[in-house]
Every structure is written in C-alpha cells, then in structure tokens.
Predict the 3D structure of the following.
Amino acid sequence: MYVLIATSIAVLYFLHVIGKRIPRFCTSKKRLDGKTVLVTGGTMGLGLQAAIDFANRGARLIIACPFKNEGMNAKQEIEARTSNKNVIFKLLDLSSLQSVRGFAADILRSEDRLDILVNNAGVGTVGDFATADGMNFIMQVNYYGHFLLTLLLLPLLKKTGTQSERSRIVNMSSIMHRLALSDVTNYNKIGYYWFNFFIYSNSKFCFVLFARELSKRLNDSNVVVNCVDPGFVATNIYHSVNVVFGIVVNILINLFFNNPWEGVQTTLSVSLDEEAGRVSGKYFRNCKITRPRKMAYDDAKAELLWKDSVKLVKLSDEEVEQCFK
C-alpha cells in the first residue's frame, strides 16, 4: 500500500513538472487599435480568454458561436472586463455549410479588413454521427467548417495584409494530433473508427496538414497561417465524454497542467509576436516553434486532404480560384 501511494505521488509530481516546466507567456505589448480580429468559439474556454486579450488591446473584435445566449453573455462579459465596446457577436454553426457561407458573406459585406482569424471553435468526443450535410459532425465542426470559412475569408485577409504587417490565420490544433490515423480519405466516414477520440485526433491533425498546404498555396502573399498546441488545458470540452469525467479531469489538469489563461498564451503569441508573423505553415507549442508528428511533413497526404476537403465542402474550382485572387 505504501509503495502504491509513494508511486502515485511520484507520478503526479512528474506530471506536474512536465506539465508546468518552463512556463512561457506571450510577452507582446502590441496594440490592435484599428485592427479587426475574428475568433470562432470566442465565447467560452480558450476562445473567450483570447477574445478578452484582443479586446484589451483595442481590437474590433468579432466572436462567433452557434448559441445566441452564450454569445450575448460573452459579449457583455468582454465589454465589462475590457471597456471595449467594439465587440460584435455573430451566429456561426460550423456543422452547417450554409451557415458558414452565410457568415462569411456577412463578414465580407460588413467588414473592410480582417487582420487575425483564430480558428478556435471545436467539440470533443460528442458522438459519431452525420450532419445535415452528410459529414461527420466532429470533423465538420473542428476542421471542414473552418476549412471552408478560411478559404472564403482569404480575399479579405489578403486585402488587409501588407509586407510589413501580414494578416494571420491561427489554427487550434492539439497534442492529440499525434494519435491521428493515416487514412485521410476516410476521416469523414461515420461508424468507421472504434473510438471517438480517433475522430477528434484526426480533426486536429487536419489543421496541421491544412496549415502546411495553405502556406504553400499562399506563396509570398501577405497572409501567414500557423498551428498552435495549447497543451493540456482545463476546459468544458472534457464534459463531452461525461460530466463527472469532465469535472475530475479538469481538477487534475488545473493542478498539474494548464488553466485556460496559461493555455491561451501560445495562441496569443502566434497572433501577436513579431517573429510569428514572419513564418507560415509552422506548429507552435509553449510559445515557440516545435515539430509536429512526422506524418505532418507528408506533402502527398496534405494535397490529398486538400482535394478531399474542397470536394466535401462543395467548393467549385472557380470559387477556389476566386479565394486566392
């Protein structure tokens, strides 16, 4: 018994050291007055933390989620905590291609610039079922919806970016991308994987491949795209497994790993730091460039995922060409 207790304490201490060692924080003092930032899922968790920081820096802030009450409450909280009244909430359901297209059209119509796009919204292992578009729900919310949204907003991002101040696309990936399976053409299938966490892992790996492929297609344009890994962070996403499980996991993560404010630091760094604005197609963890899994460097796989994604979100060749003009 004593050996078991001692071993448990040693393991927990090791996890604490690994999870909390050399904590890095975004040190940028950059102001965002006159700039526009869009955060999907900017109404709770990591997205809300990022949104509050952007608003504090004076940005015109757009937060998006599919729930009106959640969105309006977040808008009020951000305004109260930052005294920034230039905060806009818009409905966006990433599980609906129609909603994504309508949202993007609204942004293009109402905004004259977009400096930072943070693709943050996501769901956990909520279930393996199809959306009205016939797509895997987890995959569509976490990746395919963001893929379509990003491409549709590219013209505005390209218009805004300059050689000295590039527009930025920030994709929220995860350490779980390392557990993704290799068959990218099967990612959208329903009932194909034994465990839903593989679907979640696949969706986060897609963001890494997407960033690398998009960065190549953008060439030397004034837009950069990078991925962030927030580490293990205590958020409500774990409640998708089970409420009790979520509570217990969040307590442990808060104790030994990152709270939401610590977890959002890499997102802020990639969105704001000068050095991050000069690189594209990279993967950041703990506020510095690191290497994703080896499979992320497979160019053939990235191109295959790109073509499959374009087909699934129903983008025509003409629309894709228009996105890059």
